[in-house]
């Protein structure tokens, strides 16, 4: 639904300070009927439309100012404007706004924006809202990380880093985003990051950690010092969007980079032409003591297979480790994974599956094989 013109939505870039912080001020008005503090259904729909463009998750602060027309006495109108503010604030909190981000004031009839002539006074029955939003958290596929604000305290959404559902495996088109992140780390030798992993749908904390850890391990493998990196998972507790379709769910499967420290030192660096990225293959389960996939294990391989079939310029090397101390069964399970991919239409020249012996440091298990995949640019 598009916003009604009478609600007056506009963007105000308030000078160099806001531009430096990459924050934007969004102004919005909610209208009320005569002598009413009830938030009408049409106003709720308009607020919902605004929050689709600027989700609660990217808000850094909200100011609410209540107003009335001039038809009643001053004291009555002040109380009415306060009730209107509380009605709007209550609705925003219902939409998951942290009330600590909100500040309020109410003026009754004392600060009219419009004329109180009969034909226009209805516009003064309003609550004004000022949303301070962090646009860096919105998907912006045309904007490179190197073009964004890298000042201490900034949080950047890695907009083109997406994941296979239920996995910490990046989608094939995410390699350029990882390349750009690496380039930024190399050009900013003092830059320190904290990587925040997120999932959609169910609250899979382990998966959110694995996604952040995948990016962390990638940067370490490319020579970035671990002293410059941290990572943390958040489950699904901080969604950017309401999960109404696959697109919104995919956008919530993400990693964000928080700038812990940076300075003005820069150095020359060139983007790597070919990358190799490793990720865990999670929840591919087999029947106990058997090489037959469980239904859930087959489903997980289906998700991965769908990505493999669409990929361009990558080769996928899967490794099944014998951390179960049963080399024969581990080899059989590797063969089962390979057969399953072929049955699901993945071409032989896109992948291979190897069995690797146990090595010190791997977590041992009675029956669950550790599986990893390497994404290798060709």
3D structure, described in words:
The protein is of the alpha+beta class. 29% of the residues lie in helices and 21% in strands. The protein has eight helices and 13 strands. It has a five-stranded mixed β-sheet with strand order 1-2-5-3-4. It is elongated, with a radius of gyration of 26 Å.
Question: Which features would summarize this protein structure in a list?
Answer:
13 strands; 378 residues; four-stranded mixed sheet; 8 helices; disordered N terminus; alpha+beta
Unreliable residue runs: 1-21
Order of strands in the sheet with most strands: 1-2-5-3-4
- The oligomeric state is single chain
Number of strands: 13
Note the topology.
Layout: E1 10-12, H1 15-21, E2 23-31, H2 41-53, E3 59-66, H3 74-94, E4 102-106, E5 126-134, E6 155-157, H4 175-187, E7 192-197, H5 205-221, E8 229-233, H6 246-252, E9 255-261, E10 276-280, H7 295-310, E11 314-321, H8 327-343, E12 351-356, E13 371-377
Parallel strand pairs: 3-4, 7-8, 11-12
Antiparallel strand pairs: 1-2, 2-5, 3-5, 6-9, 7-9, 10-13, 11-13
In brief:
29% of the residues lie in helices and 21% in strands.
């Amino acid at each position: 639904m598009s916003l009604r013109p009478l609600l007056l939505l506009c963007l105000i870039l308030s000078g160099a300070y806001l531009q430096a912080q990459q924050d934007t001020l969004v102004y919005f008005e909610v209208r009320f009927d005569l002598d009413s503090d009830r938030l009408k259904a049409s106003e709720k729909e308009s607020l919902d439309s605004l929050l689709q463009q600027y989700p609660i998750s990217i808000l850094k602060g909200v100011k609410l100012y209540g107003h009335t027309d001039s038809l009643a006495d001053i004291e009555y109108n002040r109380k009415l404007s306060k009730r209107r503010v509380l009605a709007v604030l209550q609705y925003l909190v219902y939409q998951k706004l942290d009330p600590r981000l909100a500040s309020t004031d109410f003026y009754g009839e004392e600060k009219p924006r419009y004329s109180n002539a009969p034909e226009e006074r209805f516009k003064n029955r309003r609550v004004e809202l000022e949303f301070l939003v962090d646009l860096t958290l919105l998907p912006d596929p045309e904007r490179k990380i190197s073009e964004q604000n890298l000042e201490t305290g900034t949080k950047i959404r890695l907009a083109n880093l997406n994941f296979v559902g239920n996995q910490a495996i990046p989608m094939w088109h995410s390699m350029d985003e990882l390349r750009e992140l690496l380039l930024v780390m190399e050009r900013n030798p003092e830059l320190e990051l904290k990587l925040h992993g997120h999932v959609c749908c169910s609250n899979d904390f382990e998966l959110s950690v694995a996604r952040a850890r995948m990016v962390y391990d990638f940067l370490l493998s490319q020579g970035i010092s671990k002293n410059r990196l941290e990572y943390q998972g958040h489950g699904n507790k901080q969604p950017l969007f309401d999960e109404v379709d696959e697109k919104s769910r995919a956008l919530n499967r993400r990693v964000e980079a928080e700038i812990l420290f940076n300075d003005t030192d820069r150095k020359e660096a060139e983007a790597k032409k070919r990358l190799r990225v490793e990720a865990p293959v999670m929840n591919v389960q087999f029947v106990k003591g058997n090489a037959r996939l469980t239904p859930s294990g087959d489903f997980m391989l289906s998700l991965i297979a769908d990505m493999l079939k669409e990929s361009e310029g990558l080769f996928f090397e899967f490794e099944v480790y014998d951390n179960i101390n049963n080399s024969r069964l581990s080899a059989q399970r590797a063969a089962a994974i390979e057969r399953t991919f072929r049955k699901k239409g993945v071409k032989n020249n896109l992948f291979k599956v190897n069995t690797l012996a146990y090595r010190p440091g791997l977590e041992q298990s009675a029956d669950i094989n550790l599986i990893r995949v390497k994404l290798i640019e060709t």
